[in-house]
Specification:
Helices cover 30% and strands 18% of the residues. The protein has 364 residues and is α/β, with parallel strands linked by helices. The chain has a 10-stranded mixed sheet with strand order 3-2-4-5-1-6-10-9-7-8, sandwiched between helices. A hairpin with a 5-residue loop joins strand 9 and strand 10 (356-362). The longest helix is centred in the last third of the chain and has 15 residues, at 302-316.
């Protein structure tokens, strides 16, 4: 079941990962993605009309969000007058918060950096992007787990449908953090051991001495959403429709493709349950894709990388490779070698605590 009156149009996308800094390069990269995925963007470019000096004391998290939103609004023809802004994240900028507390405990309050604090707070990306784009109508920062990106996208759709905003910029950013990586290693969730999972979803054996997982990484991915009636130049076919799915337990619509957030993390047991449920209600075998074999675990940004793949397939008819499926799904899923006929894509993302978010991407 979907909330039909919450359907919005997605008119643009901006993205940056360690492998790509433009949506046009995404499909070609995924076809040849290495087994050892890069963790960090070596040099985050400044967005248009900003220089590196202005970014000097900003956290990588904020710079990723700025670059992605800068790309997004570069050619945007929608008005920013009543545009809301929603940003999702999971861990925040641990780099600056660690710097702040290191100086605090080592040298005392007199030596801490005010910049490290102000640029390290949870709302720092929201403030920086609002100032850069001249967005004055408000919005919010949403903090959540592996499904946070879709929660953010759905919140933007609800806000537009309820008349709060005419347009929204919505996305998520996550910076790679050695501190976060080390914490997860200690609880045996992720391990940088070059052992990728054999299939997806890959529910982990909690007692296994060696775990398989994709590396932690970073990304910034943002979309523009508006009412379908506000889309300029509809004949250009440069937009798709997006509908939040309010209840997957009752979802029985036919789809051409499903893109899952499984990535050998704690969410995979719930991804497997959800995929099994959805496939059991499809009349025909349905293709399944995953984004994390190409981009690693990016937490809040992960579902929006899946959404970016959905956008690229629908708008540009690009091809994306598949990944080996869990045995429980093989008999129900189908293979897709031609994406030109794909018109309806369901993106799902589960969190470590079992919450599952979803959205339906469609094109006429």
């Amino acid at each position: 079941m979907i909330i039909n009156n919450k359907t919005v149009a997605i008119t643009g996308i901006g993205a940056i990962t360690p492998a790509i800094n433009d949506i046009s390069a995404m499909a070609s990269y995924c076809k040849s993605a290495p087994d050892k995925l890069p963790k960090k963007v070596e040099n985050i470019p400044p967005p248009p009309e900003m220089n590196s000096r202005e970014l000097r004391r900003m956290a990588p998290l904020t710079r990723l969000a700025l670059y992605a939103t800068g790309r997004l609004f570069l050619d945007l023809k929608l008005s920013r007058g009543n545009c809301g802004l929603y940003i999702g994240l999971t861990h925040g900028t641990t780099s600056l918060l660690m710097e702040f507390h290191d100086y605090l405990f080592d040298f005392g309050p007199a030596m801490v950096s005010p910049n490290a604090f102000s640029n390290g707070v949870t709302n720092a990306p929201l403030g920086a992007v609002s100032k850069y784009l001249g967005l004055t109508q408000g919005g919010g920062t949403l903090v959540g787990y592996e499904n946070c990106g879709l929660i953010t996208l759905n919140q933007a759709a609800f806000s537009i449908a309820n008349g709060i905003y005419d347009t929204c910029c919505a996305g998520a950013a996550e910076e790679y953090s050695p501190l976060v990586e080390e914490a997860y290693k200690k609880i045996l969730w992720y391990d940088d051991n070059d052992k990728n999972p054999d299939h997806l979803p890959f529910p982990q054996n909690k007692s296994a001495p060696d775990r398989k997982s994709f590396t932690l990484s970073e990304a910034g991915v943002f979309f523009t959403l508006t009412k379908p009636g506000n889309v300029p130049n509809k004949s250009d076919k440069n937009y798709c429709l997006y509908s939040p799915v309010d209840d997957l337990n009752n979802f029985n619509e036919e789809v051409d493709l499903i893109i899952s957030g499984a990535g050998a993390g704690p969410q995979d047991e719930y991804e497997l349950e959800t995929l099994s449920l959805i496939l059991s209600r499809q009349k025909l075998p349905t293709g399944i894709l995953f984004s994390k074999p190409f981009f690693g675990e990016t937490f809040a940004a992960g579902p929006l990388l899946s959404s970016a793949i959905a956008w690229d397939i629908l708008i540009n008819q690009k091809f994306y490779p598949s990944f080996t499926l869990h045995d429980k799904l093989k008999n129900k899923a189908g293979n897709i070698s031609d994406f030109t006929d794909v018109k309806r894509i369901l993106v799902i993302a589960a969190s470590r605590d079992g919450e599952v978010s979803a959205g339906l991407f469609t094109i006429n």
